[in-house]
Amino acid sequence: MMYPLFRWANIVLVVFTLVVYWFSGTNPERFWGFALLTPTFPWLLLLHLLFIAGWLLLRKPYFLFSFCCILLGWGQLTAFIGWHGSAAATPQETSLRVLTYNVFMLRALPRPQGAERGKEDEAFFAFIRQQEPLDVLCTQESSKSVSNSIAAGCHFPNVYFGKGKGTTIYSRHPFLDKGSVEFPGSENSCIWVDLQIGDRKVRVYNVHLQSNHISDEANRLAEEGDLQERETWRGIRGMMAKFKRAAVMRADQVQRVVEHLSTSPHPVIVCGDLNDTPLSYSYRHLTADAGLIDVFKERGAGLGTTYAGVLPALRIDYILADPRIRTLDYRILRRSFSDHYPVIGELALP
Question: Which residue has the higher pLDDT, 268 or 185?
């Protein structure tokens, strides 16, 4: 009796998912509303898997609705779920280990009220040192004092803090050159350094695209919101306005980054927090348009979730690389030092 209802619910889910596929990567400067759809993909995937399991248990062929829909979005699926293993470098290759981490100003570390940075941070420093041999560390949401503390605690000889907007690059290798990509009107930033690694050179970008600034409001609405109250709907509208502004700003910022990438005389590695999922315009512009390779899709395993905050199942932290750079390994390290998880990649330079 319920089969027609379930069948139509499955069809509606398929149609909605196809809409998400079709409009993924849409420039939010043209229509920002589609940017709201991109974070829904993991949940759509979960619903499809539940429908598949249900139809199989009922021994009905309708599981093909969701099965075929998932296959049509295979590229999106592999950007969220990986099933690869690591590879070894050949004797002709020079490997480079890179870690990117939005450290959230180290505010997640337990620290007594008013205490100075010191032994309370040692667990974090020890965690970073455990990733040795670590060649490059890129951090986002870091103050000058936090960056100095990390450099000292993790023994990095070369540090570039940029223009004080929270992005920092630490390196075991000397800087040949360094600079920034300007993001007008934003507290977010992008910096870059050219590194000499043996007889090879590479340019590393550390990118932090515009933040949505809605996590605190989402927390509050989830805990206290009542859909029957006018105040709740006012809060939701405010969140949507912030999201729209941030999405449009990210579109401009990623365009600036892509234009700068094209001027690099060396192979490039782009690390950082894009504040966007793999179905977003930012991701598509850096990969499909700029030609960078998503290191997770090359060697990632398991769920690609990198955000540990209240909004679940988000992959917004990335390592992207020049196609000439081979991916040897990729891992998401599930540690609770921040509202993000650190991402580490082992790369072989051409």
Answer: 268
